[in-house]
């Protein structure tokens, strides 16, 4: 269904601006699907995923511009490097639970943001740095339509990966971990290993999306690593519905598209945006997709 939507969507996209919004939706959805695996299925909060997103873009840019690594190698190399970093940082961090874990991941995001801003020799500092174009099969990817198919294909692949993961024994272990870590341990589930694995996978998906964003825009700044960006990603996951892969996609789509539609309100844009968020969470307390699914099936909330 999602693949069909991606294929048919260009019929309703009238111009390059619409393609640009669609690309941003797909990239945000990739991050949110990975973040939902961590938050919605494993029950581990993260308020620093924007840091991994930015690191993916900077790592690929630095490898390509400063070391001459081909972009088709620098991009996966950046994802692997960020995944390795997340694996190392996750070992002590994921021992925490609840609010301490949220504060620890927030701290990681802040540290990454500060490092990207101050290490101007490598990152260009607050002004950012240029990023070379993505080159595939010897040709530079240019134009919104070409990037749309790359972003759409990545989204379909990410959703396919997530759906297969949650239906596997590993996915059932993640859900058991979310329900009760003590009960999961009594069943022989290695909770530490599963938390670390899903945290690493989620960080790598964020890094991949960040790298693609950087190569698409041709520029990247530390603004991609801010706490506000991390909060936006979490809001997308909660809005669409935690523990719902398609909820993450819908949340990313709505929360990316809504600010574009509200620009006509000018000074009242943020006020209406906040009101929509409050109203949605009151009417759809479990998130948009799970609540609508319950209504559709005739079950009470």
UniProtKB/TrEMBL annotation:
Main location: membrane
Keyword field: Cell membrane, Membrane, Transmembrane, Transmembrane helix
GO CC entries: plasma membrane
UniProt GO molecular function: branched-chain amino acid transmembrane transporter activity
Compartmental location: Cell membrane
Annotated Pfam families: BPD_transp_2
Keyword Cell membrane: yes
Bilayer topology annotation: Multi-pass membrane protein
Transmembrane segments: 24-42, 71-89, 101-118, 146-166, 198-221, 233-258, 270-289
InterPro entries xref list: ABC_transp_permease (IPR001851), LivM-like (IPR043428)
Name of this chain's protein: Branched-chain amino acid ABC transporter permease
Organism whose genome encodes this protein: Ramlibacter monticola
């Amino acid at each position: 269904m999602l693949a069909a939507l991606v294929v048919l969507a260009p019929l309703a996209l009238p111009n390059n601006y619409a393609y640009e919004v669609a690309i941003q939706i797909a990239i945000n959805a990739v991050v949110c699907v990975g973040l939902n695996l961590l938050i919605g299925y494993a029950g581990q909060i993260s308020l620093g995923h924007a840091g991994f997103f930015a690191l993916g873009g900077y790592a690929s840019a630095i490898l390509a511009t400063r070391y001459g690594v081909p972009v088709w190698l620098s991009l996966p190399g950046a994802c692997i490097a960020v995944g390795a970093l997340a694996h190392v940082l996750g070992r002590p961090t994921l021992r925490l639970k609840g609010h301490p874990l949220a504060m620890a991941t927030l701290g990681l995001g802040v540290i990454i943001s500060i490092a990207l801003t101050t290490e101007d020799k490598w990152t260009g500092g607050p002004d950012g740095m240029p990023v070379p174009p993505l080159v595939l099969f010897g040709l530079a990817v240019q134009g919104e339509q070409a990037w749309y198919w790359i972003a759409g294909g990545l989204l379909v692949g990410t959703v396919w990966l997530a759906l297969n993961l949650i239906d596997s024994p590993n996915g059932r272990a993640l859900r058991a971990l979310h329900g009760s870590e003590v009960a999961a341990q009594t069943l022989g589930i290695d909770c530490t290993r599963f938390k670390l694995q899903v945290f690493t996978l989620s960080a790598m998906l964020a890094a991949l999306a960040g790298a693609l964003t950087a190569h698409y825009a041709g520029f990247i700044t530390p603004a991609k690593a801010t706490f506000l960006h991390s909060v936006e990603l979490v809001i997308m996951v909660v809005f669409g519905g935690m523990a719902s892969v398609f909820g993450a996609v819908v949340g990313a789509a709505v929360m990316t598209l809504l600010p574009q539609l509200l620009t006509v309100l000018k000074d009242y844009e943020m006020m209406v945006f906040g009101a929509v968020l409050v109203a949605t969470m009151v009417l759809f307390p479990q998130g948009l997709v799970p609540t609508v699914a319950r209504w559709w099936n005739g079950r009470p909330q």
